[in-house]
Amino acid sequence: LGAARRRKSRTPWLWLVEDYARIRDLIAQVFDDFEDFNARVAQPGGFRLRNTASERVWATASGKAAFVPHAVPRDTPSHRARERVRDALVFTLLTTRSHDQYNTTIYGMDDRYRGVVGQRRVVFIHPEDIRALGVQDGDWVDLKTVWDDGQERRADRFKLVAYDIPRGNLAAYYPETNPLVPLSATAVAAGTPTSKAIPVVLVPHEAAV
């Protein structure tokens, strides 16, 4: 893309894509954590990326972790959706990756983090919410977004999986749930999609006829 769009660029785009190690060497010139990266990544078994939090190392004046309290928002899309929809339970859906996934690239159908094997069309839900809906763990449901623009957004045929998740919340894998995210649902400052907080309702799966 760089070579096609910037034909007079001094950056040797095609030379770089011939060997991604060259790209990593350039990154190392501006990012200290990439120092000697190519040699380290070639070691059998790879290497561990340092995580200062796991080592209890905090770059603060006190040398300790600092916590800043914030008020819990009371005017979110889910709050507004619950005001509009009184005859159904409105949940807040977060979309997430499985263990066998990197961004939207899916390498396998298992998720060892959550005990899911051989499937992806699942929605994690608190057991009490399952009972409140009058359904059963393992039932199939369709998800519908609650938004204010009159457009229908849905993702069909997901299996309920009882899970230790806060009541009123759901979790499911993307990209299967991407159709539920309105283009206008963006973070106030960042402008990124609010894929971790989509108001939805669950309905029994409508099997194709």
From TrEMBL:
Database matches in Pfam families: Molydop_binding
Entry-linked InterPro entries: Asp_de-COase-like_dom_sf, MopB_CT_YdeP, MoPterin_dinucl-bd_dom, Prok_molybdopt-oxidoreductase
GO biological process entries: cellular respiration
CDD domains noted in UniProt: MopB_CT_ydeP (cd02787)
Domain Molybdopterin dinucleotide-binding intervals: 91-196
GO molecular function: molybdopterin cofactor binding; oxidoreductase activity
Gene Ontology, cellular component aspect: membrane; oxidoreductase complex
SUPFAM superfamilies: ADC-like (SSF50692), Formate dehydrogenase/DMSO reductase, domains 1-3 (SSF53706)
Name this protein carries in UniProt: CbbBc protein
